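Support case: pyrazine-2-carboxylic acid complex. Customer-provided input:
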Amino acid sequence: MAREALVIVDFQNDFTPGGALPVPDGDAIADRLNELAQDPRFDLVIATRDWHPENHGSFREQGGPWPRHCVQGTEGAELHPKLDRSKIDVIIDKGQNPDTAGYSAFENPELERILREHGIEKLTVVGLATDYCVKNTALDALRRGFQVEVDTTATKGVDVQPGDSERALEELRRAGAEIAAGSAKGAV
Ligand code: VGL
Ligand code: ZN
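Agent response - structure generated as follows:
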């Protein structure tokens, strides 16, 4: 059996209702994330955080597309309170470079280093948002030679344009990802 990691992308206050850049129903995946995080098939459970400096280029005041969100050290950048911290082995922060989008968690080289150190061959990528950070993290994982599954019972998209999340999943499928609607224990 391939050694597997669960990568929970950006399940943070600012991406859930009430936050600065809320993903519609973003908090609805909390129970499913916790269920996955305790599945024994995962040798490693990683949570990523979007972790921007004040002057990040993706913010509107800097000419970017997004409202100010996930500024380092703020409440909005904290992991969502419903996420069970006890199941998380490692937190990877990304998005610190003001000049890059920071959508992929592989922009922080620490992610690949830890995965290789643990002999991980397969990633299940879940969290927020399907059409941005989940998509880009999963595509980068495929480019680096990992097997990738995206579990759609544990992701939600921003859908700036209707259908963005569906198109992101289609792109991931074409790139070689397995798109599953709940394959682990307790699947719905
Ligand atoms: C994200 C937009 C801006 C994400 C991060 O986590 O998907 N989306 N920054
Ligand atoms: Zn961001």
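The chain has a mean pLDDT of 96.

Case will auto-close in a few days if no follow-up is received.
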